[in-house]
Amino acid sequence: MKANTAAPPHHLRCIEAAVIQAAEANDGLAMLLTLLDAAHDQTASLEQVRCLLEPLQRKLAVALEQLEGWR
Fold first, then answer.
1. By CB count within 10 A, which of 39, 48, 58, 66 is most buried?
2. Chain-centre distance of CA 68, in angstroms?
């Protein structure tokens, strides 16, 4: 029996890529929360928190763009 080697439809590839980006952002946020919890006795400036959140925001923005790409 020959395996189906056809590529998945474009919209499924877009959704899959978006889910991967969102999962990576979720993992990053969980790691960031663990880090902040471990450092609960220290203060962080707004700029420090912004620098930590910026890569996660970019990943979520990419995920949204990929979801919009399949319409």
1. 66
2. 15
pLDDT bracket for residue 6 (50, 70, 90): confident
Number of domains composing the chain:
1
Q: Is 4 domain-assigned?
A: no
**Are the C-beta atoms of residues 18 and 64 closer than 8 Å to each other?**
yes
Residue 61 in domain: yes
**b/e per residue 24-52 (b: at least 16 CB within 10 A):** bbeebeeeeeeeeeeeeeeeeeeeeeeeb
Query: CA 35, 36, 42, 47 torsion: positive or negative?
Result: positive
The tens digit of pLDDT for each residue in 21-59 reads: 889 999 999 998 998 888 888 888 889 889 989 998 998
26 falls within a domain = yes
